[in-house]
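Before the break, one more example. Copy the sequence into your notebook; we will annotate it together after we see the structure.
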Amino acid sequence: MENLKAIKKLNLFKNLEENEITALLRCFSLKILNFKAKKKIVSRQDRIENIYIIISGSARETWFSEDGDITTSIDYREGDIIGLDYASGARKTFSNDIFALEDLMVVALDSFRFFNPCNNFCPRHTKVINNAFSYLAKQHNKLLNRVKELTMPTTKEKVMCYLANVRAYVKSNSFDIPYNRQELADYLGVERSALSKELSELQKKGIITFHKNHFEIKKTQQ
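Here is what the structure looks like once it is written out:
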């Protein structure tokens, strides 16, 4: 199958041989789907029929207030699984819009077949379910970091908490973030003007340097 090598690299299929993956993909009614940048993948209230694993590109899930303003967002990148948290729970529909940030290729798997193994209870299905729960555990840790970022009392603390979390994730003091200024403000739940002011102050104090979406943490605040 075309794209099998790319699929084999995905964490969901870790420790599986190609013949095992091929058999699972038939069992899961696999489809390869492509989305253009800004194209919606799922909408709020869409029925949860598939989970989507990103082969290439990125996507964003957005939460909106009752007034239609973006309240927060979460990004999905290569190897991430869209809809797994929804499909593994009791929900029957998606609660947020999810759209492609750039040209996107995903593996779409039937969510019911994924979580309801056939009567054979084959070892390969057990492996992939274990990989899925390992992924959910890692996502849980990311969400804990997200909660910490959003509950910081000041804009400066939110910014530094976010940058520290990115540094820990990439294991480097120098990194790119996936947001422009408005998107970062939306992500942190602050005004863009307040964000820009704090970034400038942090740079003046030599704590960080930045250019566009590239940041470097120069020293840790005491």
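The two ends are 54 Å apart (CA to CA). Helices lie at 4-8, 18-27, 84-87, 111-115, 123-151, 155-170, 181-188, 192-204. Try to locate both features in your own notes.
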